[in-house]
Amino acid sequence: SVPLAFFSGIGAGSKLGILFKGGIAIEALQNVKAVVMDKTGTVTEGNFELQRILPAKGFAEEQVLAMAGTCEQNSTHPIAASIMAAVQKQGITPWAPDSVKEIAGKGIEAAAEEGTLLCGSRSLLLDAGISTDDERAESGGTEVFLAVNGKYAGSLIIADTVKEDAKSAVTAMKRQGIVTAMLTGDGPETAQAVAAETGIDEVHAKLLPEEKLRELTQIRSTHGSVMFVGDGINDAPVLAGADVGAAMGSGADAAIEAADVVFMTSAMSAIPQALSIAKATGRIAK
Ligand code: ADP
Ligand code: MG
């Protein structure tokens, strides 16, 4: 009978750390034509490490790091942890800011006696009319830009690594006839490098959380039913807007709540595994 087949799918999933929220989730997965992934924490490890500091003319490396630390000291973004680790390691004392404002998907604005700071994506600075040097992040990395009192101060190159099984997971999905896509708030250079390394078909960069949802809707109208996989850090709206929403790894609580499928593992191979369990369950059910 149908319910029994779904139970076998749920059992097979749980052995691999894949939790389906009931038969409905499995049924929805059987129809998926495209898998859309968030970059940070889904395709990459999400463990950033500071690699290089590139001060602008007239600034020293320690100054750039102190300014970044001033902005990031209370942020929970994965980028912040890597900057604060470097601040601590180099014995740098950040300024005491009077105000700190985090702008989702862009970065941080902070004001202190020493000056007003911007720390984040290139577009955060461009929005304030400040031009930067060319983006220089390499594969899997991200470049964080700094400005003080409206003046470009330099950038920090922060490396993240593509998950070990990312390429083989993408290959497996393609063999299942699935179109793969990646959405990110990060810059196009970094996004393209990750796509090239993993074989992901479509990449869309520089997206704000609400733009990710719009892009997902576009992919659905082109390819059909869509599964979104993310860690839930500012992507809960996309997760809820997909035909199947999946939360990966140590995802945020809100994401686990909103998800149809939860991956207890951070391995990307869980995605093609979930798809093949759903397909096999469908065959038994018929
Ligand atoms: P993703 O889409 O890869 O999950 P986010 O939407 O979290 O990335 O962030 C998009 C971009 O915004 C980052 O690549 C970074 O440039 C910038 N950004 C966001 N939060 C911060 C922060 N706390 N400090 C510096 N930069 C940030
Ligand atoms: Mg994210």
UniProtKB/TrEMBL annotation:
| Compartments, as annotated in UniProt | Cell membrane; Membrane
Taxonomically, which superkingdom? Bacteria
The text of the family note is:
Belongs to the cation transport ATPase (P-type) (TC 3.A.3) family. Type IB subfamily.
State the name under which the record lists this protein: Cd(2+)-exporting ATPase
Q: Which organism is it from?
A: Schaedlerella arabinosiphila
